[in-house]
Amino acid sequence: MKRTIASLAWFCAITLSTLLALVVMQHETVGGAPPPFKGVLTYHNDNLRTGRNPNEVMLTISNVNSNTFGKLFVLRTDGRVDAQPLYVPHLTIAGIRHNVLYVASEHGTVYAFDADHGALLWHRTTLGSGERPSDNRGCAQVTPEIGVTSTPVIDLAAGAHGTIYLVAMSNAVGGYHQRLHALDITTGAEEFGGPREIAAKYPGHGDNSRGGFVIFDPKQYKERASLLLLNHVIYTFWASHCDFRPYTGWIISYSGFTLAQQSVLNLTPNGNDGAIWAAGAGPAADPSGNIYFLDANGTFDTQLDKNGFPANGDYGNAFMKLTTRMGKLAVADYFNMYNTVHESDVDEDLGSGGAMVVPTITDSGGTLHQLVVGAGKDRNIYLANRMNMGKFNPNNNHQIYQEVVGALGGPTFSMPAFANNRIYYGAVGEPLRAFSFNSRATLNTTPQSVTSTRFPFPGATPSISGSTTSNLILWAAANTSPAVLHAYEANNLAVELYNSTQASGGRDNFGNGNKFITPMIANGKVYVGTQTGVGVFGLLP
Fold it and tell me: Is the pLDDT of residue 326 over 50?
């Protein structure tokens, strides 16, 4: 790729975002060789949010079993680990090269561990002098304290050595704070003059408005959805505490190089609710720099303008597409269900699940299809055409690319994974299900395979490892006490390779379950967050 770029003089005239789109498109195309492994730097492995590590070669369907695979050790933290751990290989810290695991806790502490042996390399608190983590704000969704909830993101090109970005909530005598931190990945030192206090306003007359603007109140929100890094810009998405009003739907972005606020968008500026939480999933981005996510229950204007958009700019309970041209957020397109108002009224929102950009699918006629998928509480799977999401029809949902009605046996509080032309879902109280694409580039309505295990609330967000389609392993954690890590053949979910209860004497117990936890796989190891730390699994000595 470097030689190709160097040989094309005209390439220097294209924009950075276009260049990035071309590079990412290579990774998106099914069947291409995976790019060199630079680590797990964001939630669910990539900005498409596929959940697959195609560079994993050490763990195979032949060696992942209770005889040769199991718990290696547990990393202890000072609070719950709700954020997915991140991973940077071959990083030099204090003169020694390490594979490094980054873990953030709800007590507001960030840790860097040696990912292979568990040694603590550094740790930093996000709390200011005299501060403590936020209380749970009277809501049991994140309890007993709120510090770092969402998965951070790492930019290896920012700062002297690379930077990890995260949002932390805290409380002091003067009130509540939401801050964006940028930490050097080798030392934990704050960079770019950080942390940056998060504050915003947006034109509108909805909840918590005055003087013609809705105002961001830090105590009313938590950063649940994982951070998104796109063209060195950090995108934050804001959830409520148990739907306690007043609140609206905020997206706020910051420069990764200066922490200056870049853009602000509110999805319910003249209404209420419409938060973005997605069970902790990170909003997805396509190769062109567009952002996709599922908005939660809230005001939706059924009266549309001449272009088919809500007349007052309120998009509650919608499947959203945002453009980020020139770093500025704007609604590019959307889809909403014909019965969206009723769904919001009964808290059956689409926003309980995460969206995933589907790697390009080709039908039997050779036509390429650019799709995005999502599911929420109504048990349907929605596939939208990224070039034409479908907008709103008050009579039916026929305008969307595909609606698989009743595909899931329970509501979705998770996000899917993708590999080998299959989408994997784990709904509440249900087995994991694999749905295959057919020759028409639509999903078969009957699952290709299912697990024998049913996953209790909140279901499961699966992750996938394997460098070849014949050696794919699907991983999922059950939110039980103790938690259980499962591994299945991804091409046939009926075949369970391993689970952490199989070894006798509780050998592989690693702590109590934590909802919305996603396994992370790197370099022959699997990392799973718990209420007290991170369980580390791999091939046994």
Answer: yes
Residue at token pair 């996603």:
518
> Among 419, 488, 531, which residue's Cα sits nearest to residue 77?
531
User: Is the bond preceding residue 246 a cis peptide, omega within 30 degrees?
Assistant: yes
Token pair of 70 as six digits: 């199991």
pLDDT above 70: percentage of residues in the chain: 94
Q: DSSP label at 401?
A: S
Rounded Cα gap, residues 8 and 218, in angstroms: 48
Q: How far apart are CA 45 and CA 415, in angstroms?
A: 13
d(CA 278, CA 355) in angstroms, rounded, equals: 8
Confirm if 498 and 69 have CB atoms less than 8 A apart: yes
**Token couple for 179:** 């801050």
Report the alpha-carbon distance of residue 88 to residue 454 in Å, rounded: 33
Closest C-alpha among 347, 312, 351 to residue 214: 312
SS3 state of residue 178: strand
Model pTM greater than 0.90? yes
Q: Is 81 exposed, middle or buried (0-12, 13-18, 19+ CB in 10 A)?
A: buried
- Taking the CB of residue 432, how many other CB atoms lie within 10 A of it? 28
Virtual torsion, Cα 226, 227, 230, 231, nearest 10 deg: -160
Give 425-466 pLDDT, tens digit per residue: 999 999 999 999 999 999 999 999 999 999 999 999 999 999
Q: How do the domains of the chain map onto residue ranges?
A: 2-539
- Does residue 238 contact residue 286 with C-beta atoms inside 8 Å? no
Q: What are phi and psi of 113, to 5 degrees?
A: -110, 150
- CA distance linking residue 515 with residue 80, whole number of Å: 10
403 and 336 Cβ atoms separated by less than 8 Å: no
Contact yes or no for 383/400 (Cβ under 8 A): yes
Mean pLDDT taken over the chain: 94
- 326, burial (CB in 10 Å: exposed 0-12, middle 13-18, buried 19+): exposed
8 Å CB contact between 142 and 136: yes
- Structure tokens that stand for 465 in this block: 């490892």
Instruction: Compute the distance between CA of residue 9 and CA of residue 163 in angstroms, rounded to an integer.
Output: 32
Cβ neighbours for 178, distance < 8 A, ≥ 6 positions apart: 167, 168, 169, 197, 198, 218, 221, 223
- Identify the CA nearest to 78 among candidates 136, 24, 126, 34: 126
Q: In what order do the strands lie in the sheet with 120-125?
A: 86-93, 96-104, 109-114, 120-125
CA-nearest of 108, 80, 143, 123 to 513 is 80
Tell me the CATH class for 2-539. Answer: mainly beta
CA angle 230, 247, 273 (to 5 degrees): 85
The answer to whether 163 touches 140, Cβ cutoff 8 Å, is no
Please state, in angstroms and rounded to a whole number, the distance separating the CA atoms of residues 117 and 73. 8
Query: Which residues is 478 bridged to in the sheet?
Result: 484
